[in-house]
């Protein structure tokens, strides 16, 4: 027969170790706020376990209320950490019902119905754990295998708490005057230790996975404009075959060196950011934008005919021509040239399409700049108003 006290102390020891590990991780990576939140939630649960162990030895109505409040509060904090990690808004949806349940539990326990208090608390914890499992499964965007395990452990732990409440409810134990001790409680102690240990380990795995994703995003993102960089272009499309409804537009800001020489590099950076902002306005599903370096940009267009791709590139050029950057020597309006390379029915590589787009871009430069040219069609963007100060 399992020793109930030993199970409780094992749960407390496991929680202390997990919490200490997470605090250490948070100290080295302060941006991982959800790890700190999990650590705090586990510490609250450790306090609950220790006081519950004390309650099994010396039952006391006030201690019972504290024990039940700490149990609900600990899982509420862990639920909030899941929302924090997954970016789920509306913390009040978890706060309000849990706090209401805690208040009702305290009230019924105060008048002597401690069994009812335990039932309410177990129901609250079951709901919180179920919500955690559902959120990870529905909102998670990482490795589905990890998320499945998180959902399974949360669900298993929820079932164990639900069984504790159902046993008390089935037996009609509205008044206990002592800590509940039955097969469900013992099972719950084992399951809770195993599941919380597993969830703690998975939290560390998710932190590591998130760190990898953030690092990859940093290496794939241009820090100035926020667009993806050349490495991202190669990673996303390097192995792709460009079919007849795919194209690449190469853009190059006109006379950008002169912009830097006359207005200074800070203004040049503003111009680059303005162009990036214009591209983002036209971003949609199937349109990915990249800054290749310097004043060179690329836009990969999918699921569009040649005509529509050309029109999109022309609209970007026209929109950028209307952008004005204020400078110390007067307003600055810049222009951009573009060249388009297209995929084919038999498929083409990224390098081949880029080479075609680059050739078309130089043709646009030779044609007087401020236009978009392709091998299938030669044309300029719609006329723009005369520049106040053109770079």
Automatic annotation (TrEMBL):
Domain GGDEF, chain residue ranges per copy: 244-377
Keyword annotations from UniProtKB, A to Z: Membrane, Transmembrane, Transmembrane helix
Keyword Membrane: yes
Catalytic activity from the UniProt record: 2 GTP = 3',3'-c-di-GMP + 2 diphosphate
Presence of keyword Cell wall biogenesis/degradation: no
A Pfam family matched in the record: GGDEF
Main EC class the enzyme belongs to: transferase
Record-listed E.C. numbers: 2.7.7.65
TM helices/strands, residue ranges: 6-27, 34-56, 62-82, 94-113, 119-139, 146-169, 189-206
CDD domains: GGDEF (cd01949)
Cross-referenced PANTHER family: DIGUANYLATE CYCLASE DGCM-RELATED, REGULATORY COMPONENTS OF SENSORY TRANSDUCTION SYSTEM
Official protein name in the record: diguanylate cyclase
């Amino acid at each position: 027969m399992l020793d109930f006290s030993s199970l409780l102390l094992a749960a407390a020891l496991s929680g202390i170790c997990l919490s200490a590990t997470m605090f250490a991780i948070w100290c080295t990576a302060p941006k991982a706020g959800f790890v700190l939140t999990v650590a705090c939630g586990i510490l609250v649960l450790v306090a609950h376990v220790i006081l519950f162990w004390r309650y099994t030895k010396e039952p006391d109505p006030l201690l019972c209320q504290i024990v039940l409040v700490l149990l609900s509060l600990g899982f509420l904090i862990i639920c909030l950490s899941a929302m924090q990690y997954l970016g789920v808004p509306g913390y009040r949806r978890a706060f309000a019902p849990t706090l209401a349940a805690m208040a009702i539990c305290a009230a019924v326990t105060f008048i002597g119905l401690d069994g009812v208090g335990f039932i309410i608390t177990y129901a609250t914890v079951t709901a919180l754990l179920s919500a955690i499992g559902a959120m990870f499964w529905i909102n998670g965007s990482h490795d589905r295998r990890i998320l499945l395990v998180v959902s399974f452990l949360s669900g298993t732990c929820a079932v164990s708490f639900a069984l504790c409440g159902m046993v008390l409810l089935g037996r009609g134990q509205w008044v206990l005057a002592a800590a509940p001790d039955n097969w469900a409680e013992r099972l719950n102690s084992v399951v809770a230790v195993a599941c919380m240990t597993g969830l703690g380990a998975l939290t560390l795995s998710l932190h590591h996975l998130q760190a990898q994703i953030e690092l990859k995003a940093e290496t794939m993102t241009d820090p100035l404009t926020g667009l993806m960089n050349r490495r991202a272009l190669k990673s996303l499309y390097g192995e792709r075959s460009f079919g007849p409804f795919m194209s690449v537009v190469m853009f190059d800001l006109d006379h950008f060196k002169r912009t830097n020489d006359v207005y200074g590099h800070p203004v040049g950076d503003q111009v680059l950011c303005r162009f990036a902002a214009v591209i983002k306005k036209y971003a949609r599903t199937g349109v990915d934008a990249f800054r290749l370096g310097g004043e060179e940009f690329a836009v990969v267009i999918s699921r569009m005919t040649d005509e529509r791709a050309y029109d999109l590139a022309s609209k970007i050029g026209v929109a950028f021509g209307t952008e004005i950057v204020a400078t110390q020597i007067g307003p600055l309006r810049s222009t951009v040239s573009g060249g388009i390379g297209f995929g084919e029915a038999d498929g083409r590589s990224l390098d081949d399409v880029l080479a075609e787009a680059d050739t078309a871009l130089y043709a646009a430069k030779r044609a007087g700049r401020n236009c978009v040219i392709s091998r299938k069609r030669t044309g300029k963007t719609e006329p723009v108003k005369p520049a106040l100060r053109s770079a």
